[in-house]
């Protein structure tokens, strides 16, 4: 049944239809104001699901779409889906508000922007609220497409197109792999429903398609969430307008992969591979992203790599959290549950501070005309509000108290330290790498967070390098980031606002097997959690970070160890370039435009294929018992035929060749006589005569071509291929003649030609009576040929030379 | 005799293929004609060449040759004639328009690819 929930999911799509109309009809009001209504209403609508998900669990509604294939649009709202839904609609509303001030009404084509944005919003809602994998995949691809459209919003810029194409190729590659994974899962469980798949976990884990399905789905999640080494598309996607970067590439779309991993954790987490791959890729991405962010000079570039790194952090925590499923129950000694709490908490926090930071960068860009930190500086007194936003966002990102980033970083360290206590899958030995890498990555995170604030807002103001005279942004532009940083602070001080409303229900979706009926996870996020290892690690991060930030000039040379040439970007570019060159070479080598070449392929294939099949399958037989005897007449005719073919093959005279063809044709007619086929002989004689006359007319009497042909150059390849074709035909003829499977049906014609059709000439009766349909079409063929010939001779198109 | 005729069909196919693989348009058209002769002979041979009366009931013979392949060949002859004559005229026109009967020179414009 189609419910209000379904309507809510597709509402953005419906709204997108009206956007161009409003843009054209009401040009006096910025189109964004109309668009703002959609996410705002949806946000309020989805807020009312909070009590439902935290008390009763999940709500679902089914709308059958393709029931015969088991594809239903099943909207399924549980804690995890709701967390994402609120992020999508909430930040969506703020981003639309921000874009109203960011995008000019006069210069930009707003209708396309908001259409794409609404498309994206609807698709994202569909991804997180669909229970059916195929429907999820559908929405997943729509997010890829709309992201592609949004990145290339300024399509006259070459870099936008490059970035859009890159993100499209990488995310669609992953999306396709994800589809393969879903189909593999379907072949194990026989259902596309995620919840039913989770229910069937015990059977799936032992299936031999389990691991391929897991890897294929993980590839999809990793490409979408910009995990190492597929992170390369995200920095290039920064060519999109800043509201898009803030919305898609920090808060929502890049978290679709995280959603997928979290959603399928109950299915796959039983295996050690899942734990290692998810946590391993996450931690690698965390390190590589934070390490690369420090070398960037573009503010959006820093934020892009920072997003990559924070996504890696969330994913590594999800990986570690999966360890919880190897223990029973949600009781206190299952410490790994904390990692899942941390992942979800940081997921939310990251969306708040990263969204505000992107908007801050947009404001700086808007008011100064540059995003390059080498040209920026000294904006603190000119743009105090923007500075405050930047400071709060960055300090939260760096994990400093009293902001929410501090809490999630502490939880992160806790989970990384805890994983070393996990006794399975070598985690207790090699697992030591995790806290170590996490700590180093956090130091880099601290450094780039400081760069974002201090390089932009402190130091000397470089007026000559700025296009415009900088000033504070209008209030409307500041409103959205202010809301977000307020959240950063509020959640920093009162983290438990989220605990039971949002996080506990979301955990219940991820770690569902651990819960008994009616049980709930205990989530307690304290601001002061004791003087333990995590706090010491944070103090260490701050000290090391400050020292490294101050001495950055001295160790910057480290980056020369990893020159651009060795980057994955370069690998991607080279793959595309080389691939194009290679395919052009391959195409050019065999499709060279000469008909002869194509015929060589065709004939060689036919001969090779048939000969190999015949001998490999043992199909060749010779049975001479049933053959007719050879008489002198046939031998003579055979020799004549042989001679005629030889003459045709090697003569250079046009006339000799035509006569040779005539000789061959008449010889065939003679064969027909010998083999008791009077009608064939008659027809063959007449037709051969007419053909030869036509040949003579066209190629001997009419044109001014030299009477002699160029001598045919003897080509060994041609000869071998034609000999092979001849031998193949001979062998097939012999073999077919020697192995008769059943009697011919011709006894029927003998018995009934006169009785049924009233004719004594069996061949003619077959032609016009038993199989008259063939004859009719054959007449049609002749008619078409005649019409074609007439057209070719008579029709002269005017202006044909221009063609 | 079936074996001899199979060899004859093979020879026709070989000659036809060799001609088709050449560059000259007349050779190619004649090659297709030769191949169709080969195909007709092959059809007849594969049905068996047992000596019997021609398939005319008026002869009142005890056995007749198989009429069905003959009907098939008759159809094939007519069709191959239609196609061949079309080819001949097409080749002729192509020669008149392009001034060449060499297929290697018939390559359209350079901008193809």
Please render the helix and strand layout as text:
The complex is a heterodimer of chains A (803) and B (113).
Chain A: H1 4-25, H2 31-47, H3 50-55, E1 59-66, E2 71-77, H4 79-102, H5 110-129, H6 133-151, H7 158-189, H8 194-199, H9 201-204, H10 210-224, H11 233-236, H12 242-251, H13 256-268, H14 272-295, H15 299-321, H16 337-368, H17 384-398, H18 404-419, H19 433-457, H20 475-493, H21 496-510, H22 533-550, H23 552-555, H24 568-590, H25 595-616, H26 632-650, H27 654-674, H28 678-701, H29 716-738, H30 746-757, H31 762-770, H32 772-794
Antiparallel strand pairs in A: 1-2
Helix pairs in contact in A: 1-2, 1-5, 2-4, 2-5, 4-5, 4-12, 4-16, 4-20, 4-21, 5-6, 6-7, 7-10, 10-13, 12-16, 13-15, 14-15, 14-19, 15-16, 15-18, 15-19, 16-17, 16-18, 16-20, 16-21, 17-19, 17-20, 18-19, 18-20, 18-22, 19-22, 25-29, 26-27, 27-28, 30-31, 31-32
Chain B: H1 2-20, H2 25-46, H3 67-98
Helix pairs in contact in B: 1-2, 2-3
Provide a concise account of the structure shown:
The complex is a heterodimer of chains A (803) and B (113). Among the domains of chain A are: 1-208, no CATH class; 596-621 and 713-741, no CATH class; 630-701, no CATH class; 749-802.
Structural notes for this entry:
The complex is a heterodimer of chains A (803) and B (113). With 803 residues, chain A is mostly helical. Among the domains of chain A are: 1-208, no CATH class; 596-621 and 713-741, no CATH class; 630-701, no CATH class; 749-802. Helix content of chain A is 70%, strand content 2%. Chain A is built from 32 helices and 2 strands. Chain A has helices at residues 4-25, 31-47, 50-55, 79-102, 110-129, 133-151, 158-189, 194-199, 201-204, 210-224, 233-236, 242-251, 256-268, 272-295, 299-321, 337-368, 384-398, 404-419, 433-457, 475-493, 496-510, 533-550, 552-555, 568-590, 595-616, 632-650, 654-674, 678-701, 716-738, 746-757, 762-770, 772-794; strands spanning 59-66, 71-77. In chain A, strand 1 (59-66) and strand 2 (71-77) form a beta hairpin. The mean pLDDT of chain A is 86. By secondary structure, chain B is mainly alpha-helical. Chain B has a single domain (1-50, 64-102), classed as Helix Hairpins. Chain B contains 3 helices and no strands. Chain B has helices at 2-20, 25-46, 67-98. Chain B is elongated and about 60 Å long. The model of chain B has no long low-confidence stretch (mean pLDDT 85). Chains A and B meet through helix 25, helix 26, helix 27, helix 28 and helix 29 of A and helix 1, helix 2 and helix 3 of B. Chain A: GO terms for molecular function: antiporter activity. Chain A: This is Multisubunit sodium/proton antiporter, MrpA subunit (TC 2.A.63.1). Chain A: Belongs to the CPA3 antiporters (TC 2.A.63) subunit A family. Chain A: It comes from Salibacterium qingdaonense. Chain A: InterPro entries: CPA3_Na-H_Antiporter_A, MrpA/MnhA1/PhaAB, MrpA_C/MbhD, MrpA_C/MbhE, ND/Mrp_TM, Proton_antipo_N.
């Amino acid at each position: 049944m189609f419910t209000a929930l379904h309507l809510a999911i597709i509402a953005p799509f419906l709204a997108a239809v009206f956007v161009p109309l409003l843009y054209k009809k009401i040009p006096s009001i910025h189109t964004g104001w109309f668009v703002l209504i959609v996410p705002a209403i949806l946000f309020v609508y989805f807020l009312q699901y909070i009590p439902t998900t935290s008390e009763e669990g999940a709500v679902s509604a089914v709308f059958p779409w393709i029931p015969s294939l088991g594809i239903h649009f099943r909207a399924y709202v549980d804690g995890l889906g709701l967390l994402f839904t609120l992020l999508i609609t909430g930040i969506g509303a703020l981003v639309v508000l921000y874009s109203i001030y960011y995008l000019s009404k006069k210069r930009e084509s707003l209708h396309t922007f908001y259409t794409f944005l609404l498309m994206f919003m609807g698709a994202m809602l569909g991804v997180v609220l669909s229970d059916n994998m195929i429907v999820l995949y559908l929405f997943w691809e729509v997010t890829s497409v709309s992201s592609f459209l949004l990145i290339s919003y300024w399509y006259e810029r070459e870099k936008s197109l490059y970035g859009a194409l890159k993100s499209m190729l990488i995310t669609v590659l992953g999306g396709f792999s994800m589809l393969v994974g879903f189909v593999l899962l379907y072949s194990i469980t026989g259902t596309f429903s995620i919840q039913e798949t989770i229910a069937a976990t015990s059977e799936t884990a032992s299936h031999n398609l389990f691991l391929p399905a897991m890897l294929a789905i993980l590839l999809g999640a990793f490409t979408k969430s910009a995990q190492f080494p597929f992170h390369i598309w995200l920095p290039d996607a920064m060519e999109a307008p800043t509201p898009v970067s803030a919305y898609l590439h920090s808060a929502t779309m890049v978290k679709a992969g995280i959603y997928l991993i979290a959603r399928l954790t109950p299915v796959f987490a039983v295996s050690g591979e899942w734990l290692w791959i998810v946590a391993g890729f996450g931690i690698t991405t965390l390190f590589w992203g934070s390490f690369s962010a420090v070398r960037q000079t573009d503010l959006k570039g820093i934020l892009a790599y920072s997003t990559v790194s924070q996504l890696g952090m969330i994913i590594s925590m999800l990986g570690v959290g999966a360890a919880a499923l190897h223990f029973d129950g949600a009781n206190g000694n299952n410490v790994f549950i904390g990692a899942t709490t941390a992942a979800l908490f940081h997921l939310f926090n990251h969306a708040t501070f990263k969204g505000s930071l992107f908007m801050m960068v947009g404001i700086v860009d808007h008011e100064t005309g540059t995003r390059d930190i080498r040209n920026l500086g000294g904006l603190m007194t000119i743009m105090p509000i923007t500075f405050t936003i930047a400071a709060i966002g960055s300090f939260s990102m760096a994990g400093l108290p009293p902001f929410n980033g501090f809490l999630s970083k502490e939880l992160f360290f806790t989970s990384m330290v805890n994983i070393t206590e996990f006794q399975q899958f070598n985690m207790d030995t090699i697992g030591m790498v995790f806290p170590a890498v996490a700590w180093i990555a956090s130091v880099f995170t601290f450094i780039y967070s400081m760069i974002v604030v201090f390089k932009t807002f402190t130091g000397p103001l470089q007026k000559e390098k700025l296009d415009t005279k900088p000033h504070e942004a209008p209030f409307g532009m500041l409103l959205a980031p202010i809301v977000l940083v307020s959240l950063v602070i509020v959640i920093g001080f009162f983290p438990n606002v989220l605990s039971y409303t949002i996080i506990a229900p979301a955990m219940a979706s991820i770690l569902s097997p651990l819960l008994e009926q009616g049980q709930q996870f205990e989530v307690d996020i304290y601001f002061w959690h004791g003087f333990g290892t995590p706090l010491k690690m944070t103090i260490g991060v701050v000290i090391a970070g400050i020292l490294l930030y101050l001495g950055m000039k001295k160790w910057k040379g480290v980056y020369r160890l990893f020159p651009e040439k060795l980057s994955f970007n370069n690998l991607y570019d080279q793959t595309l370039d080389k691939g194009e060159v290679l395919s052009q070479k391959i195409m050019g080598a065999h499709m060279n435009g000469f008909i002869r070449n194509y015929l060589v392929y065709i004939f060689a294939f036919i001969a090779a294929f048939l000969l190999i099949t015949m001998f490999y399958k043992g199909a060749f037989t010779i049975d001479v018992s049933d053959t007719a005897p050879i008489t002198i007449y046939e031998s003579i005719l055979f020799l004549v035929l042989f001679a005629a073919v030889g003459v045709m093959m090697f003569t250079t005279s046009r006339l000799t060749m035509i006569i040779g063809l005539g000789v061959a044709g008449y010889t065939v007619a003679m064969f027909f006589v010998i083999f008791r086929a009077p009608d064939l002989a008659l027809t063959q004689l007449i037709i051969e005569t007419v053909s030869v006359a036509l040949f003579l007319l066209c190629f001997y009497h009419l044109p001014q071509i030299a009477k002699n042909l160029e001598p045919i150059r003897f080509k060994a390849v041609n000869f071998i291929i034609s000999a092979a074709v001849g031998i193949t035909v001979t062998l097939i003829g012999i073999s077919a003649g020697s192995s008769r499977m059943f009697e011919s049906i011709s006894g029927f014609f003998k018995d009934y030609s006169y009785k049924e059709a009233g004719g004594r000439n069996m061949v003619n009766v077959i032609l016009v009576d038993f199989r008259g349909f063939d004859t009719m079409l054959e007449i049609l063929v002749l008619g078409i040929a005649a019409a074609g010939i007439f057209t070719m001779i008579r029709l002269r198109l005017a202006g044909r030379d221009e063609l | 005799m079936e074996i001899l005729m199979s060899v004859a069909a093979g020879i026709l196919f070989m000659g036809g293929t060799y001609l088709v693989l050449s560059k000259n348009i007349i050779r190619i058209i004649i090659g297709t004609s030769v191949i169709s002769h080969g195909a007709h002979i092959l059809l007849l041979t594969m049905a068996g060449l047992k000596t019997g009366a021609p398939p005319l009931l008026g002869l009142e013979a005890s056995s007749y040759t198989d009429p069905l392949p003959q009907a098939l060949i008759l159809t094939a002859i007519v069709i191959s004639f239609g196609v061949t004559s079309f080819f001949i005229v097409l080749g002729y026109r192509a020669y008149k328009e392009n001034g060449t009967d060499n297929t290697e020179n018939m390559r359209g414009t350079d901008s193809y690819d």
